[in-house]
Amino acid sequence: MAKLNVAQLDDRLRAQRQSFDKVPLVDLAPLLDGSDPGQVAKEIRWALANAGFMYVKNHGVSVRLIDETFARAKAFFDLPTTEKMKLHISNSGVALRGYIEVFGENTDPAKTKDLKECFDVGPEWPTVEGPFFGPNQWPTVLPGFQETVFLYHEAMKALSIKILSSIALSLDLPADFFEPKMKNPISIQRLLHYPPQSGAVDERVIGIGAHTDYGSLTILAQDSVGGLQVMNREGVWIVGNPIPGTFVINIGDLIQKLTNDRYLANLHRVVNTSGRERYSLAFFIDGDCDAVITPLESCISDDSPPRYPSITCGAHKFTRFLESFPHLQREHTTGLAAQPNGPTVL
Ligand SMILES: O=C(O)CCC(=O)C(=O)O
Ligand SMILES: [Fe+2]
Question: Could you tell me the distance, in angstroms and rounded to a whole number, from the CA of residue 269 to the centre of ligand 1?
């Protein structure tokens, strides 16, 4: 997890409207149709080394499914607060599924309270099996919600595995490098709602505080409202304008650690001063809970000694959530105590 020193330099919350040349748009068609995976890997290598973010087009996910999932998200957040609070994430223990109210998770807690509400689902497990695995809490008052959101989660999972194969190729690793370490990967499908802010906005309350993502890969669908900001290498916040037909992809801490900083888990935040409600769908995927992340040999040299100790995906992610979830801090004083079944080396 990067510390937020660069972000602290900037207290102006209006992002500069610069050309987004440095965060490229990658066409996934040659990867998905098999015609030129090498070309896609080459573009991904540049994007992740320089921006940590990219837009992707021709991703193959049905527009209808995306639109329907946005509609389900809106219907959920329109429910009365009492109804949403029945599904509160604190009911789910360490499985971390359910509803998170405004200010219920703060991603830059020393500076910012997050003016957002979210709803998290993940792979369906009948009982709580440990961190990130357990039953979902579905809003039964909304017929069809469960089916759509679960289908969307599955579509994101399938796409993320293809993108991870391209990330592996981009690192001169075999395309299936990540697969043995992702037998039951941690994944979270999050629905988000950002109420608009008006008047003087300062960093104490914004949509989502500056943060890097915790896991391997994030796939974000944003509506047309805008508000995502990504930091460029000069420490300037750049507007991440929604581009119709694309997802925003970024890598999280685990890939930065795996690549010993060759690839960047970049800082980003959301400030919604549009005057409109903003909705987004963020899918996060990691390795298995007990998969160990150690810097790759190929990313270590005399000039670039190993910068990160080995850590499991589960321990890293749970520790990050402990910092951002006030409800978890009340319930847990330690992170993951032990790694079940011994580590899988990633
Ligand atoms: O909603 C967005 O645009 C970004 C969300 C995000 O950064 C996150 O959930 O980690
Ligand atoms: Fe994020």
Answer: 7
Query: Which amino acids bring their CB within 6 angstroms of ligand 1?
Result: 190, 192, 208, 213, 220, 222, 228, 268, 270, 280, 282
The pLDDT tens digits of the residues spanning 314-328 come to 999 999 998 888 888
Nearest Cα to 293, choosing from 164, 187, 161, 181?
181
Structure confidence by residue, pLDDT tens digits, 114-142: 999 999 999 999 999 889 999 999 999 99
Question: Is 253 exposed, middle or buried (CB count within 10 Å of its CB: 0-12, 13-18, 19+)?
Answer: buried
Q: Among the atoms of ligand 1, which is closest to the Cα of residue 118?
A: 9
Global pTM value: 0.91
Domain chopping of the chain, boundaries: 7-345
Name the E strands within 49-198. Answer: 53-57, 98-100, 113-114, 117-121, 185-194
Ligand 1 pocket: which of 230, 280, 281, 325 to mutate (most atoms within 8 A of CB): 280
Q: Which architecture does CATH list for 7-345?
A: Sandwich (2.60)
| ipTM tops the 0.85 cut | yes
